[in-house]
Design a protein that fits this description.
heterodimer; A: 149 residues; alpha+beta; two-stranded antiparallel ribbon; 5 strands; B: 135 residues; 19% strand; globular
Chain lengths: 149, 135
């Protein structure tokens, strides 16, 4: 069950390249500048926060070399509203296997979670989020490969 | 399971496991949500109840992610459910839409107990299909 361990630099490069992919020509804004605006207008419904999930998904898919089916959502906490936390679920389109599924034991009780979530405010938060997603997706893919699925 | 019995289990689970109040009623909660659309309402109690009832009736604990959909102003009464089989990790709600778009969740409008029963029946069908596929 071998899988590549990406360095933080590789993840940063993938994020920057992914941002270039999704940039529209008229938006000559760097990812860092987008994140500055994002922090400033976090709770402004007129500001599109979609740049964060788009760049994260594109970066993960670039690094893994495959496309997945995704569900992402901003997490709203009452009464604070949107705090920058995003939740992601990745599914393999061929097998429909949930790649972000996690099971753990606490006090002899089994718990499941099917999403990965991180609060994103700065560039390094994006790096952490991509790392967490890779940490879920790559072992799941390796397991599927070893099981011949 | 008959619809009437599912409605009963919805009420029991809502009262005992979700609201934790012996006086609580799922039907009254839904009526309040439908009529008041109070932003302070713990709206996630609705999909949490549905998911817990599917677990209870099927006798299994699935991996769940639920989302209360919102428009510009408030919750719409629509809920997205993503359901994962903990044994196979298969996303049971993943499907391709009529437009050819692949999605991982199913959406139900739940404004009445009967809507909730419809959601439970649909999700149980997915659970039972997976059991048959793995038999």
């Amino acid at each position: 069950m071998e899988f590549k361990n990406f360095s933080d630099d590789e993840i940063r490069q993938a994020l920057t390249a992914a941002w270039q992919d999704i940039l529209e020509e008229e938006e000559a804004v760097s990812l860092e500048e987008y994140l500055r605006q994002y922090r400033k207008y976090l709770d402004d419904p007129d500001f599109s926060i979609d740049g964060v999930p788009q760049v994260v998904i594109r970066a993960v898919e670039r690094l893994v070399g495959r496309q997945f089916v995704w569900h992402w959502e901003p997490v709203y906490r009452q009464p604070d509203g949107f705090t920058g936390e995003f939740s992601f679920i990745a599914v393999d389109p061929e097998t429909q296997r949930c790649l972000t599924f996690k099971e753990w034991n606490y006090n002899n009780q089994v718990f499941h979670s099917i999403n990965v979530s991180v609060t994103v405010l700065y560039f390094e938060d994006l790096v952490l989020l991509v790392r967490k997603l890779l940490g879920a997706i790559l072992p799941a893919l390796a397991l599927m490969k070893s099981a011949g699925r | 399971m008959e619809r009437e019995r599912i409605a009963q289990v919805l009420d029991e689970v809502f009262r005992d496991e979700i609201a934790g109040d012996p006086e609580a009623s799922f039907e009254e909660f839904l009526t309040d949500f439908r009529e008041m659309r109070d932003p302070e309402t713990p709206v996630y109690w609705i999909p949490d109840t549905v998911a817990a009832v599917v677990d209870k009736i099927s006798g299994r604990y699935f991996g769940w992610h639920v989302e209360a959909l919102r428009d510009e102003f408030s919750y719409t009464g629509e809920f997205m459910f993503i359901m994962v089989d903990p044994k196979t990790h298969k996303c049971l709600t993943a499907h391709t839409t009529a437009g050819g778009y692949c999605t991982v969740g199913v959406i139900f409008a739940i404004l009445t107990v009967q809507d909730a029963v419809d959601a439970v029946q649909y999700l149980l069908k997915l659970a039972n299909r997976e059991v048959r596929n793995n038999a």
